[in-house]
Amino acid sequence: MRSENLDLLLKETVESFLEKIKGENIEVISHFDSDGITSAAIMAQSLKRLDQKFSLKIIKSLTGEFIHSLEKDRIIVFLDLASGSLKNIKEARLKKVFIIDHHEIKAEDIPENVEIVNPELCEKQKISSAGLTYLFCKKIDERNKEFAKLAVVGMIGDMLDKEIGELNYGILEDGEIQKKRGLLIYPSTRPINKVLEFSSSPIIPGVTGDSIGVSELLRESGLKPENGKYKNLVDLTEEEMERLVTSIILRNPKKKHKDLIGDLFLIKIFGKLEDAREISAKINACSRNGRPDVSLGFCLENLEAKKKAESIHTKYRQQLIAGIKYAQTGDKISGKGYVIINAKDKIKDTMIGTVSSIIANSPGYEEGTVIIGMSYDGGRKIKVSARNVGKEGRNLKELLSEVMESFEGEVGGHHSAAGCIIDMDDEEEFIENIKKHLEIEVVRVGRETIPSPDPDI
Question: Is 1 inside any structural domain?
Fold first, then answer.
C-alpha cells in the first residue's frame, strides 16, 4: 500500500532502501540537467557517508535500449528520470529499482520491483528532483543537511523559484540561503553591463548580444560606470533598479514590472556568495557540452572543475545567443496557435530545450502558443522540445505522447514543458503528425471555450 503523504512515503522508501542496499553495489543513474546533476551530487555524497559501494552515470535521455542494457542483478537508482519509462523497466526484469523523480506518472503502471518517490503520487506539491533527493538523503542521515544548497540550485534550475511551497521553503531554511528582491536577470553578482549583454531570460530586443545596445540602455537609465566599472546588479539602489526596469519594459513590452522583479537566491559556494541561477547555468552548460563530470566536480566545490566550468560556460553563453538569433530569424513552420522551429544542425540538441524556453518567453507570441523546437543530435536522432507561451496552454506531455504512438521513442516532461526523441528517418512524418494534432487541439479548445447556444449541440 503506497502512502498518500509525501513525508511518510519518503520515510517508508528510505527504510526499504537502507535494508535492500546492504552488501550491494548499486548503480545511480541521473539526468544531465542542473536538477539531475545536483540530485546526483547530493546522492553521491550521502552514499559516501554511508560507506556504500556505488557507480554513477549521467545521461541525456532514458531510452528503452539503455534500460534493457542494465545489469539485471544490481539495484538501480534513477534520479530525475524514469517516471515515464515504467513499461521498459518492467520488461527489463531488473532486480530492484528506486526512482526519485517529479515528472508525470500513472500510479497503476508501477511494477512490483519498483519503489518511487514522486509528488505526483501524493499531494502533487511543486518540488524538484534535487529537492526530493535532498529530503530522501536527509532522512538517511540528518548531517546531509549540508547539501540543502544544492537542492536549491536544482529548484532554481527547474524554475520553481516562483512557486515556493512549504517543502521548498524548508529546504531554503536548511541551506541558509540569502534571499533578496531584485531584477530577475542573472547573474545578479556580476557587473550590470555584462549581465544585460548576455541576458536570455528575458530577451531584450536591441540589447541581448549587442554591447552598443547595452550602452544605450544604461545611458537612458542614467547608470554610469564608477572608476571604469559598472555596479553589480545586486548592488543597485531601488531607484536605479526602477529606472533600469522601465528601460527594459520599453524594449520588451511583453514583460511587466511584476515579471522582472522577484526573489534572488544567493548561495555560498567556493567561499563566495553567488546567484543560484548562475550556478545552475554553469552546471547546465557543462553537461550540455558533454562534460557532466565537470558539473559534478563543480557541485562538489573542486577548484579545477570550477575553472573548467567557467570556461565552458563562457563559450556556451555565446552559442546560446547565436541559437536564439537563429530561432528568431530562421525558417519556421507556423500555424494557428503553434510554431515549429526545425533547427536541424543549426542549434545543438543539448541546447534546443533552453532555446525553446527562451523563445516561449520572448516578445511576439500570444499566450497559449505552442513552441516546438527540433534539433539533430549528431547521430541518427532528433531532439524535440515543446514549450507553452505563458502560464496557460495545452498539456504538452499528453500531446507528445499521442503523437509518439506512431513512432518509436520515449516522452518526458510536464504540462507546459515536454520533450521526446525521434529517429531522423521520421522527421517529415513527425512534423506532419504533430501539425495535425496541434490543429485538432486548437479546434477542440475553441469549441470548449465558446458556449453553444443550443445545449444539445
Answer: no
Query: Do 308 and 392 have their domain in common?
Result: no
Picking from 281, 308, 325, the residue at the C-terminal end of a domain is: 325
Same domain for 276 and 354: no
pLDDT tens-place string over residues 389-419: 987 788 999 999 999 998 887 788 888 899 9
Q: 7: part of which helix (H) or strand (E)?
A: helix 6-20
Same domain, 346 and 214: no
DSSP 159-196: T-TT---HHHHHHHHHTT-EEEEEES-S-TTSBHHHHH
Task: Name the nearest CA neighbour of 201 among 186, 221, 216, 211.
Answer: 186
Closest CA to 259 of 247, 269, 244, 249: 249
Domain range for residue 411? 331-447
Q: What cell does 329 get?
A: 530569424
423 CB-near residues (< 8 Å, 6+ apart): 380, 381, 382, 407, 408, 409
In the chain, how many domains are there? 3
Same domain, 207 and 256: yes
Would you say 168 and 155 are in contact if contact means Cβ atoms under 8 Å apart? Answer: yes
Residues whose CB is less than 8 angstroms from the CB of residue 164 and which lie 6 or more positions away in sequence, other chains included: 155, 172
The answer on 341 and 280 residing in a single domain is no
Using one digit for the tens of pLDDT, what is the confidence trace for 45-90?
999 999 999 999 999 888 889 999 999 999 999 999 998 889 999 9
Cβ neighbours for 373, distance < 8 A, ≥ 6 positions apart: 327, 341, 343, 347, 352, 353, 355, 356, 359, 384, 385, 386, 387
Look at phi and psi of residue 176 and say left if phi exceeds 0, alpha if psi is from -120 to 50, else beta. Answer: left
Do residues 110 and 197 share a domain?
no
CA distances from 439 to 132, 394, 399 (A): 37, 12, 11
Gap between the Cα atoms of 63 and 67, Å rounded: 6
Q: How many CB atoms lie within 10 A of CB 352?
A: 27
Note the pTM of the prediction, 2 decimals.
Answer: 0.78
Site of grid cell 514543458: 417
Report residue 294 CA to chain centroid gap: 18
How far from the centroid of its chain's Cα atoms is residue 133's Cα?
16
